[in-house]
Amino acid sequence: MSRMIHISEASSIAIHMLALMVGAESRLNVNKLGGMTNFSRNHISKVMQILVKAGYLASERGPRGGFSLKTSDQEITLLEIIELMEGKIEEKHCRMYENNCPFEECVFGGMPEKLTRELKLYFASTRISDVKRISQP
After folding, report:
1. I need a surface site. Which of 1, 72, 88, 118 has the fewest CB within 10 A?
2. Residues near 113 by Cβ (< 8 Å), separated by ≥ 6?
3. Model pTM score
4. Which tens digit of pLDDT belongs to each residue from 16-49?
5. Which domains does the chain show, CATH number per domain?
6. Residue 68 β-bridge partners
7. Distances (CA, A) of 125 to 28, 40, 75, 97, 136
């Protein structure tokens, strides 16, 4: 099945993991996070390494180890996490921008760019602290 709007698994994992860290009373390890989300533990591990390297999480090894937020959840926006995982979001989608478009107006009515701008605004204004979950880990 095809989707018009695509958020990668890596971005989805990163946002879910950070949101689970908010308010956690203790460090969360990959096994617990995997059990809570049904994401692959291998994928979670890779994403967590990126988040640690970027300074969002602290990690501690050992039987009582795991991950905890290093940055305030009030400071982390969805946009910065998505762009960390995917790279900068471009607003121009039409490949015809690079060439000479034979049409006077965009055949898609400019909607891909408009929706991308709206999504970027939403992601930029939504913080990890805004994400509500059903229960505490």
Report:
1. 1
2. 91, 92, 93, 94
3. 0.86
4. 999 999 888 889 999 999 999 999 999 999 999 9
5. 9-130 (1.10.10.10)
6. 58
7. 27, 29, 11, 28, 24
